[in-house]
Design goal:
single chain; alpha/beta; Rossmann fold; 3 domains; six-stranded mixed β-sheet; 19 helices
């Protein structure tokens, strides 16, 4: 059994992100120091690009700023002592300084820094030879591992993790889950990874339309509890509506005259029901349909790889790779970070040249459209949300463009907002809206679900499933892959292993992957809530459920009353 953790709170990426992003995005990226016993160390998990010119070892060592300063001062004092043998006064001062520094080194446990780094980095998948490599030479997934390593080495009192699983392969995500589960430290997590939230979280805070609600338990428990809340809220609303209609009918039947007293009482009751105690229906988003625009029908073959060899420096990513991709296939390229998946997409697009071999696009009507990992970074920050998509759309009506933005959770009031004011997730969703308006017959997608919230991811799944053209995607998201692909290509041991079937077929044929998947599913199943049918509930359980619904009803009435009074007083 896993030991009981301190509270782990998550904002699942559902609905509007404004409130929860504002709660975290204005915190310092590295540290938030608060006076106290040890201070509060809060770290936001993000990809640090300012250190790309540093080596991996230099980046990791920046996690120990105080220790680095002490180490550098110790080195300077020791060198000064070597040249101060004839100046006894200077030597005395240097020895005093040396003693102070040695005490500081002991207090900050300087001797253990190398041991901490040496222990953690292999767990993240790094080998000693990686220490001298520049950060920029690693893939985005490996850069994210470095960022995680730097965070975890600081032994924080509080962890703020903003979509920590982005760019990580499944092996690293599973390692991160195990590692965080062992930490006796409170965490606040923003994530769109359902399985990750199920594994870690003990409380869910959902923000939608400017309102936050808290649910006890992990994501699966939240999902069930929210459904129950919506059911009880709708029932309460319908019950109240019937009461309003009954009161209106009573007033109409009684009229005036001798029944004026009863009419007046009923009128006051009606006014109270319609204003102070009105129960509002839960907000439901409109399901606006849209599709990737297609440029007709391509020929049978979308792309062909012949004896392809690629790599950088002395490292060969894959060699003698052969692959033929046909029209209408939806193909996923999988395996750990750094094996060459993104490089393969760039070779298909012609953005990189192979060491040997060739890549041929189909001869008839193959129009590729490429979505790269960091597409959001290329947005024009001075444009508005609507201008960004309008500028990319061809022959799109304004209403259709607004409908697409609405489906991606951009409310009408956000359409004139500058791109620079959007959150990271908002920019990602906007980048995908911009991508979706361009016609194509071949979609090439590099980790398209990164930074997308859950509704946007579900919308993307629908769009790809309805797309009649060819799709080639790199993704570490099992949910996304299972929903869309009919073919899997695994990059392993410098080869492309082709599985002519969906993700379940891949698991059937790959014993190692199937074993990992079954273990993960068992862990998630163990933490999943056990739901009883109402007929199987005991009398006490039925009473508890009835009480829960009544509490939800009363809370809704109280909240609604507060809102009405606020409007009245303002």
């Amino acid at each position: 059994m896993m030991k009981k953790m301190k509270p782990t709170i998550a904002w699942p990426t559902v609905g509007s992100r404004t409130t929860r992003d504002d709660a975290v995005s204005h915190l310092p990226i590295r540290r938030l120091q608060v006076r106290g016993r040890r201070g509060l160390l809060a770290t936001r998990c993000t990809l640090w690009r300012e250190a790309e010119r540093d080596s991996q070892e230099e980046l990791i060592w920046t996690a120990f700023k105080e220790e680095m300063e002490v180490s550098e001062r110790l080195e300077r004092v020791q060198k000064a002592l070597e040249s101060a043998v004839e100046d006894m006064d200077l030597m005395g001062r240097l020895l005093d300084e040396l003693g102070k520094l040695q005490n500081q080194a002991q207090e900050c446990d300087l001797s253990m820094v190398d041991a901490k780094i040496s222990k953690l980095m292999p767990e993240l998948g790094f080998v000693p030879e990686d220490g001298d490599r520049l950060v920029a030479s690693f893939s985005s997934g490996w850069q994210m591992r470095m960022s995680l390593g730097k965070i975890l080495l600081q032994d924080p009192d509080l962890l703020l993790l903003d979509e920590p699983t982005n760019h990580l392969d499944l092996d690293t995500i599973e390692w991160l889950e195990d590692y965080l589960n062992q930490q006796d430290v409170p965490m606040v997590i923003i994530s769109h990874d359902r399985a990750f939230l199920d594994q870690l979280c003990t409380k869910i805070v959902e923000t939608d339309m400017g309102v936050s609600r808290t649910y006890e338990g992990n994501y699966s428990e939240y999902y069930i509890a929210k459904a129950a809340w919506i059911e009880s809220q709708n029932a309460a609303c319908e019950k109240q509506q019937k009461e309003i209609e009954h009161t209106q009918d009573l007033i109409h039947r009684l009229g005036a005259g001798a029944n004026s007293g009863r009419v007046s009482s009923a009128g006051k009751k009606l006014e109270k029901l319609q204003e102070e105690d009105l129960v509002e229906r839960p907000f439901e988003r409109k399901q606006i349909r849209s599709r990737f625009p297609e440029w007709g029908r391509s020929g049978r073959f979308a792309a062909t790889l012949k004896n392809l060899e690629a790599g950088f420096g002395d490292k060969v990513l894959f060699s003698r790779a052969n692959l033929t991709i046909e029209r209408g296939e939806k193909l996923a390229i999988i395996r750990p970070n750094g094996c060459g998946k993104s490089t393969l997409l760039k070779l298909i697009m012609g953005f990189q040249k192979p060491i040997a071999g060739e890549v041929l696009l189909g001869e008839y009507n193959v129009l590729p459209h490429y979505f790269e990992q960091n597409q959001a970074e290329a947005l024009d920050l001075d444009k508005t949300v609507l201008e960004t998509v309008e500028g990319a759309a061809e022959d799109w009506r304004l209403d259709d463009t607004k409908g697409l933005l609405s489906r991606c959770n951009f409310k009408a009031v956000m359409l004139d907002r500058k791109v620079s004011l959007l959150s990271v997730g908002g920019k990602a969703r906007l980048a995908f809206c911009k991508f979706m308006v361009k016609p194509s017959t071949l979609l090439v997608l590099d980790e398209p679900t990164n930074h997308l919230d859950i509704p946007s991811k579900e919308m993307l799944v629908e769009e790809i499933n309805e797309y009649k053209g060819t799709v080639i995607t790199v993704s570490h998201d099992p949910y996304f892959i299972k929903k869309i692909v009919n073919r899997v290509v695994e990059v392993k041991d410098r080869r492309l292993q082709d599985y002519a079937g969906n993700y379940n077929y891949y698991l059937e044929k790959n014993l190692d992957a199937r074993e990992r998947e079954l273990e993960r599913e068992a862990e998630i199943e163990e933490k999943a809530p056990k739901i009883k049918a109402k007929s199987n509930m005991s009398k006490a359980e039925k009473e508890a459920r009835k009480k829960q619904k009544m509490q939800a009803f009363q809370q809704a009435k109280a909240k609604s009353k507060g809102t009405k009074n606020a409007k009245r007083w303002n």
